[in-house]
């Protein structure tokens, strides 16, 4: 099955997450934003109202999700970011959102470098990225000696890249960004990890997070 078909066969819920767990980390004062991989527009439609964002764009390769998003957002481009980036206005957006998107790209570094042209002088990039060091993944690899792709989650079969907190920071810095904050989100851990963290003064704290939320700004 081709990668395009994998996206088409995703369950409807895959394209309708509102991502309210990200709200505490979204900066105030956004006037114009673009949501890369906006799915059906639920996330951006809600933050438009919560954060009083004047103009919200979306980019979404899935035809059906993009059509639904068009009824919610100011403008939606139905294509991958690799093509859509040439249609986005320069120096225009206060914030570019990449929620669980960069791991799906063949060359996320290239996109991060190019998208800087579309961000205002004091603008931001806001991302959420899965954490490959989550204890469930490590347990599967180290204990079960297995690497099994799934339809959703950290080992989603449509993920092309995998990240740790350290590699996320390095990627942004090498692409010409200053990471303002990086926060673990969606914590999930069992009793064994709690004990391990207690005995090691939280050395393995980041293993409990399914994802990281990142706020970064281009270095001029």
Automatic annotation (TrEMBL):
GO MF annotation list: methyltransferase activity
Keyword Transcription regulation tagged: no
Gene Ontology BP annotations: methylation
One Pfam match: Methyltransf_23
InterPro entries hit by this protein: SAM-dependent_MTases_sf
UniProt entry tagged with the keyword Manganese: no
Coiled coil regions in record: none
Classification of source organism: Bacteria, Pseudomonadati, Bacteroidota, Cytophagia, Cytophagales
Name of this chain's protein: Class I SAM-dependent methyltransferase
